[in-house]
Amino acid sequence: MKLPRTAARSLAALLLVWTAVAQLTPAFAVDSTPPIADPVLQQRYLALTHELRCMQCQGEALADSSVTLAAEVRREVHDLVLQGLTEQQVRDHMVARYGEFILYRPPISWRNAWLWGAPPALMIIGALIAWRVLRSRRPLIDQGPDEFGEDADEESGEESLQS
């Protein structure tokens, strides 16, 4: 079965474009640091770059950020891991240099306790407000519509329709 000449050309052009895009994919890689030969150290490096926050992007991990500052911090983490520092020592070094904000999961301390305690406290306050509002409306629901004059309005409306 032979393809028509135009279909064969289209297929060849599509294959050429696909190959070019596949070859360019490594050029768009975020992390340009060379891989570490020791797989244990490489895993430690990858774990750390996913735990640390980009100081410029603030919403991305170092591993996902393509900003120059993130590349420099990744290189620094790479060098610290190669020097043999443990994960905790690298974290401590980064916190000493950039502050606790660099950690995606900062430890609970008195300085940031309000960040950990505010969501449950706000949920409890919201539940108490909702409970009080519902409790104050219960007598209104228990009262019939006669007490508010709604039936009288409906009857006068019906009378005007009948006349």
General description of the model:
The protein is mainly alpha-helical and 163 residues long. It has 2 domains: 29-102, Helicase, Ruva Protein, domain 3; 113-162. The chain has 6 helices and no strands. The chain has helices at 5-24, 39-51, 68-82, 87-98, 113-142, 150-162. Helix 2 runs antiparallel to helix 3. The longest helix has 30 residues, at 113-142. The radius of gyration is 33 Å and the shape is flat.
Could you give a quick summary of the protein structure above?
By secondary structure, the protein is an all-alpha fold. It is built from 6 helices and no strands. The chain has 2 domains: 29-102, Cytochrome C biogenesis protein (Helicase, Ruva Protein, domain 3); 113-162.
CATH class of the largest domain: Mainly Alpha
Rg, Å, rounded = 33 Å
Question: What's the number of extended β-strand segments?
Answer: 0
Major β-sheet annotation: none
Proper CATH architecture of the largest domain: Orthogonal Bundle
List keywords for this structure.
163 residues; mainly alpha; Helicase, Ruva Protein, domain 3; 6 helices; flat
Give the helices and strands, then pairings:
Layout: H1 5-24, H2 39-51, H3 68-82, H4 87-98, H5 113-142, H6 150-162
Helix pairs in contact: 2-3
